[in-house]
Amino acid sequence: MKRELEKLNHSLMVILMFTFSVVLSASPAGAATLRPETVKGWEAYIRLTENRITSELQSPTGFLVRDFLPEEEAGECRQAIESGGVCVLKMETLNEAGRQVTIPSGMVHHWLGSVFIPGVTLDELIEWVQTYSDHERYFEEVEDSELLSRNGDVFEILLRLKRKKIVTVHYNTEHHVVYQRPEPDRVFSHSFTTKIAQLENPGTPDEREKLEGKDSGFLWRLNSYWRYRQVKGGVIVECESVSLSRGIPIAVKWLVAGYVNSVPRESMAATLSSIREGASTKPSLASRTGN
Predict the structure, then answer these.
(1) Residues ≥6 apart with Cβ < 8 Å to 50
(2) What is the Cα–Cα distance from 108 to 193, expressed in whole angstroms?
(3) Cα separation, 42 vs 289, whole angstroms
């Protein structure tokens, strides 16, 4: 039985890889073009999402995303992080009519992640997070990191990213990050990419950046919305990540959509786990908290 299951898993992987290759070959050399109508749909989705986030941040009844979730999902997240794990939930923003936002030739990946960082204060954690030049040491997907500039609570950062799922893709990305502190025990930050350039022949003398919006289409836009809340014993961290990729042809969407969606989900889980492990083991934090 075990051998048969192994054969079945191998067969499924072969099918997925073949299907994925079909998706990539839908245009010459696997290329995809970011179209104006795709950008327009993305901007509508982000506008609606940020309207909801602004409303939550201004609410007197809560601060964390989970404060506004249905009780079942909120309880699921509380239980996961209180047991030392990571909570990851799929999110979706609907339009004013309660329907899906149309994004022609594009696909939005919207995820919420949450984790509890024990034994640190909010000030210590934010200081650690804002040390962007060290991110390559703690985050598996970050190959290189650099703080380009800082003006108060506004940061411009560079991250060289690697994402791996059947194929490995490398990017040079730049991000605009803004922090706000509405109360002493809470911090909100949001970031958006100002550059995403997929790399061709990465790590070789022939490495070069592809034209933005004319690449494999795995990552065209990336926005992140972070909430940090000081609680007894540590800090709760939430990240709401919204990214844009090329669409999937209808003929194969039923087969590969879940697999494609797993990439940003796994990225979210890995990022939050890295924050928990990195912040908890950083010497300057551990010494000050007595850990």
Answers:
(1) none
(2) 15
(3) 43
Rg (alpha carbons) of the chain, rounded to whole number: 20
How far apart CA 123 and CA 279 sit, in angstroms, is: 12
Contact 178, 151 (CB under 8 A): no
In the chain, what is the greatest distance between 2 CA atoms, to the nearest angstrom? Answer: 61
pLDDT tens profile 2-47 = 555 454 444 444 344 444 444 444 444 457 899 999 999 999 999 9
Other CB atoms within a 10 A radius of the CB of residue 213 amount to 17
Fold (CATH) for 32-289: Alpha-D-Glucose-1,6-Bisphosphate; Chain A, domain 4 (3.30.530)
Three-state SS for 32-55 is EECCHHHHHHHHHHHHHHHHHHHH
Domain boundaries, the chain: 32-289
Query: Is residue 221 within a helix (H) or strand (E), and if so which, with residue range?
Result: strand 221-231
Phi, psi of 104 (to 5 degrees): -60, 135
Instruction: Specify the amino acid at residue 151.
Output: N
